[in-house]
Amino acid sequence: MLGPDSVAPMQHSEFEFQGPVDESKPEVAWPGTPEERVDRFGFRTALLVLVLALFVAAMWVANRPSFEKCSTLESVSERNACYEKLRDDLSKPPAKGADIPKG
Questions:
Q1: Quick one: which of 7, 50, 66, 74 has the most CB atoms within 10 Å?
Q2: pTM score > 0.85 for this model?
């Protein structure tokens, strides 16, 4: 029986996650073939462009005038100018989309 100050020996695990070390193959971070490198570069570039586009879209949405932003302005003239800009932005026809008949 082990005492409170003694250390139990390490037990051998049935699940050996570290396989035998093969020194003949170097471990590299990049895939082996040039096609795989190009694919990885293209995927990372597309991901970066997507993240940048989402960032720009978030900034555009955050900087648009809104009723909440206009109502927090203290100056009456600034508030009215903000409401007019908001009204103009909201009354614009869509740039592209369904053809809406006029009258």
A1: 66
A2: no
